[in-house]
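Sequence only, no structure available. Ideas?
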Amino acid sequence: MTVCPDCGAPAESHRACKKCGMYRGRKVLTIKTEE
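Reply:
I predicted one. Tokens follow.
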């Protein structure tokens, strides 16, 4: 486990962050937010 450099959430190594969708400085996932 590492820390996402964009949002600071815990993230798996070599995987896109599940909280913000960023990977290596690029937006790779669209995260739906509950409103």
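The chain has one domain: 1-26.
Hope that gets you unstuck.
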